[in-house]
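Annotated sample (chain length 430).
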Amino acid sequence: MTTTYDPYNPNYLIESDLREELTRVFDLCHGCRMCLHYCGSFPLLFDAVDSYDGDVGRLTNAQQDAVVDECFQCKICYVKCPYIPPHEWNLDFPRLMMRANAIKTKNGKKPPLEYVTDQVMARTDLIGTVSSALAPIANKLIGDNSGLVRKSMERFGGVSSKRLLPPYAKVRFKQWFNTRMRPFIENRRAKVSVYPTCFIDYMAPEIGKDLVQVYEHNGVECSVPKGVRCCGAPWLHEGNIDEFKKVAKRNVAALKEVIDEDRDIVIAQPTCAYVVKKDYPIYLEGEEAKQVSARTYDACEYLFMVHRQKGGLRTDFTGDVPLEVTYHSACHLQAQNVGIKGRDLIKLMGTKVKLVAKCSGIDGTWGYRSENYDSSKKISKALGSALKKTGSNVFVGDCHLANTAIYEETLQKAEHPLTVLARGYGLPQE
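Output written by the structure step:
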């Protein structure tokens, strides 16, 4: 493992070593150019190198840093790039960009407002707890893009006042789960623990409720792990490795207890599932993170595995079954390399599914930062146009933040695949 990927390598946080690796990787990218239309990093990089007649070594540190700033960790490089490990060129663009952000954070080179934005964006549990408790008031304030609160959030916190922010739920998913009547599971086929992360716990508990109902309807017993909080993705993506490790260590300890009970872990949000599967084993030493990773699944991935390996899912679709939907394939789901199982589940109902695989340009916190708004909006606008062209009346997507961007662009709500499946079974909307 090279310094690009190994945060425990003594050279990982040395800037001179980073600059050499940036030059090496940028030279390879410039020679290939397959990634021209993936994100803003690549056209910016290619134009800069072309201005020096192809001499990558003449790029200034500021020009290199500008390329880093345009990367929003969509992870599509892992899907498209022909040189990712184990290729001999060992090119991992996303992790190189995260390393650059880590060095920038360590060396204190971020502007004060960016540092404040990091702190605001990463404290999802604190903000989620307060906002859920005050949901009606909080949602009214954050929903008014031209109001004093949103303008203040932009000026003093760096959060764009133009972006639609997901609303908070008054009753959190964990509260609902812990107080509900537990049904008796006949013919139990599997046991899982639903790790809701901040998205479902604070913002979209209805997705978690539908997940539990659909799983139980198909003989999968559900629990919720104790002691878990946000997966830590905001800390990692903004370069604060120390805080990310603290979060990851706490969550791994809690999730290890789950797998010791012989339960698998399911996560219904692609970014969070990616972090637990792919990032925890890299940034935490020891075997526990690897063990947790091996037992963690995307929620649709796991349910389709039950369908394939345990005798098939129930087919009593007596509820609302759409004739046709358009399914959005989220980038962080593609990067998990598990296929698009949400689409496959919906097809089991006999529904015709069209596919759109464009990025939403959000990536957790990147698309909500005021300095990134214009770049992010271009990406989400292209996604909205592609969805509208399908002519579908129902949009479906696994990523809650991408679905928020879809609504912003189309004024049409996108549902999670498990929600569509729940209504197809005729299960009530909690």
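Annotation: The CA atoms of residues 302 and 308 lie 10 Å apart.
Annotation: Residues 241-260 form the longest helix (20 residues).
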